[in-house]
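Schema walk-through. Below, the input block comes first and the output block second. Nothing else is stored per chain. Lengths vary across the set, and this one has 124 residues.
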Amino acid sequence: QVQLVESGGGLVQAGGSLRLSCAASGRTFINTMGWFRQAPGKKREFVATINWTGSRTYYADSVKGRFTISRENAKNTVYLQMNSLKPEDTAVYYCAAKSLAVHGTTTEGDIDYWGKGTLVTVSS
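--- output ---
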């Protein structure tokens, strides 16, 4: 089993920045780590993923150029740097992990492990 614990959410004004972190623990090897989000009244949606080496990253069109995903394997941690935040980025952000590699954007059904989520609120 794998446990994922997110941190870094909070309230920020539009145009501001936040960095989310997700620490993974457990004995299972994790190739892909990433983030999804769920806004009020909406379905959970893909945000970004990164592979084990960091050589492959994928982003939702809505966050390209504003969000950057990275990972630090020595700490079993993945990060999401969010810049130029918009009110529509307001959501609960979930850390996600998958034992295998992915080769493009990812759906909920592809994910093996989930964190409990951290709330990001962007005020206008």
